[in-house]
């Protein structure tokens, strides 16, 4: 049997045909219709799924269900998006709408929850009874796994780890509050820090790396400079690590998961990121070395985590 | 059958004989031996339990077990305190030590977890599938209940909600970090705010209420002044509510429990506390009114929550 996993993003929609072992057999992607009504988005996803099934010579009877990971809060029982700022959805019955176009069961969940489920089953946290997966991107996505299952809270809206306030003041967040963790520790926040550092320190290697175009700064820039011994780069990375560890320590003090998984582009820094982060987190966690410590690991499934996790939604119901 | 619940505190130890309905039949209290070795503390608790059983004419065969709530982190399986800053315990096998003196099974857990369990079974969160109980005292105690059971994390150290950083800077916390929620929103923090406000505003009613003795300030003072229309009192209460809501919103965004229970002396302010708090929390929670909201309620079991919860530990294993 096969499963279709769909990672519904603000700019593109990626779908994968996944086998019983959680391996993606084939992937298809198309742009997400900008400003589309939920009926249109649902129709597009149904077409993408049909195309994927057809192109792989698989019969629809061989597909068990479709799983969708969508930004925002969904009622997972009903398959309805309750609220998604990315799409402007309020109460969008995506699952029912898709079923008008394709005759398969449809499961729906938050995209970060899907990534966390995938990492917990076949990724970095495989074998752990509890884990939290953090994705450092435009914002910070978070998914909590307890007892091998997604923890959603009573209204399916839990796990909004990026919207944990870690500072009394700060830039306004998309959620309306100030001081949210994602305004300090997302890739976007690191880019902002790097720009500020580059402008204030004209002698920094960062400015050479950019060849004068500050718009080229991305989540790697400060790390690249720091690795070359640039003081500004090192200071930026150090400040960023502090913010990143602040939120991680909070999450650990609250949930004490066996494993925390770090994903998103910044996790490509590997041990250069992880080694100092482990020290900061170990030193700040309540109880310190007197109690067993949460392990921090890098995500393993990369951008496929969303598709793989979505394809597992029906199994873990 | 009966149960003995013990609330082991830094200054006093309270024990209760509890019936099948979770009702305390009789309570005995004695001072906790200051700086005592764990063997002495265990012996004292065993004596207190024996005395309670004897004085009530109950046979030891009629008592199912003893449950203990202790500040700090415990290995609940082994009945060992892994770390408690209150007592300076690191690896103290309290349960085994007690059983040298009394022939009953002994269960051990964190004191705030016990309070949360009690409120979730026979208190303010009775009937809720998930709840978080916050106790505003010297620090902030927190207990998380998921699926009717205490959520402890993989190492039994979860639920340290007071040690969630909500500010980049601030007074140093007992845990060594700066900016912990309990340094802003505990009763101790409110007292500090009130003192500062009273000193800076000699015209404030607060100074009259204290009759010149600033040492008389407690968690009620600012509320008392605010209720009488005092501007300084209102400002202090407003600032404090802001800090309290900051942490509550974080907890809700992460866990989305059905109910949050507020306990500790400050919860005696009742609706005067709760009404503005509900508004602040409702406005700041991710998803706002588009999704079902967590209910905020006042604790019902008061100081007995620790004893009652401890007496339930064995049932919920």
Characterize the structure shown:
The structure is a homodimer of 317-residue chains. Chain A has 317 residues and is α/β, with parallel strands linked by helices. Chain A has two domains: 2-118 and 304-312, Nucleotidyltransferase, domain 5, CATH 3.30.420; 127-299, Nucleotidyltransferase, domain 5. The first copy, chain A, is built from ten helices and 13 strands. In chain A, the strands form three sheets. Chain A has a five-stranded mixed β-sheet. In chain A, a hairpin with a 4-residue loop joins strand 6 (80-84) and strand 7 (89-92). In chain A, helix 3 (111-122) crosses helix 10 (305-312), helix 7 crosses helix 8 (231-255) and helix 8 crosses helix 9 (271-284). The longest helix of chain A has 25 residues, at 231-255. The radius of gyration of chain A is 20 Å and the shape is globular. The first copy, chain A, starts with a strand and ends in a 5-residue tail after the last helix.
């Amino acid at each position: 049997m096969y499963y279709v996993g769909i990672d519904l993003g603000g700019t593109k929609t990626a779908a994968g045909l996944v086998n019983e072992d959680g391996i993606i057999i084939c992937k298809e992607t198309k742009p997400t219709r900008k400003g589309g009504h939920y009926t249109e988005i649902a129709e597009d996803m149904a077409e993408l799924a049909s195309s994927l099934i057809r192109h792989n010579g698989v019969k629809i009877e061989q597909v068990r269900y479709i799983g969708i990971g969508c930004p925002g809060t969904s009622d997972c029982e009903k398959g309805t998006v309750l609220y998604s700022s990315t799409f402007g959805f309020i109460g969008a019955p995506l699952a029912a709408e898709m079923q008008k176009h394709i005759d398969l069961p449809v499961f729906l969940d938050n995209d970060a929850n899907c990534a966390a489920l995938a990492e917990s089953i076949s990724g970095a946290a495989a074998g752990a009874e509890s884990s939290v997966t953090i994705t450092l991107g435009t914002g910070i996505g978070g998914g909590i796994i307890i007892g091998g299952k997604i923890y959603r809270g009573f209204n399916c809206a839990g796990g909004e780890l990026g919207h944990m306030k870690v500072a009394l003041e700060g830039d306004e967040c998309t959620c309306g509050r100030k001081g949210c963790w994602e305004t300090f520790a997302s890739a976007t926040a690191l880019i902002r820090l790097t720009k500020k550092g580059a402008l204030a320190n004209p002698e920094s290697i960062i400015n050479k790396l950019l060849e004068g175009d500050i718009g080229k700064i991305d989540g790697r820039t400060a790390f690249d400079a720091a690795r070359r011994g640039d003081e500004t780069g090192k200071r930026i990375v150090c400040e960023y690590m502090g913010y990143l560890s602040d939120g991680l320590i909070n999450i650990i003090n609250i949930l004490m998961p066996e494993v925390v998984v770090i994903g998103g582009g910044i996790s490509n820094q590997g041990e250069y990121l992880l080694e100092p982060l482990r020290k900061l987190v170990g030193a700040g966690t309540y109880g310190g070395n007197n109690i067993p410590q949460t392990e921090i690991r890098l995500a393993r499934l990369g951008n496929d985590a969303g598709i793989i996790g979505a394809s597992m939604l029906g199994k873990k119901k």
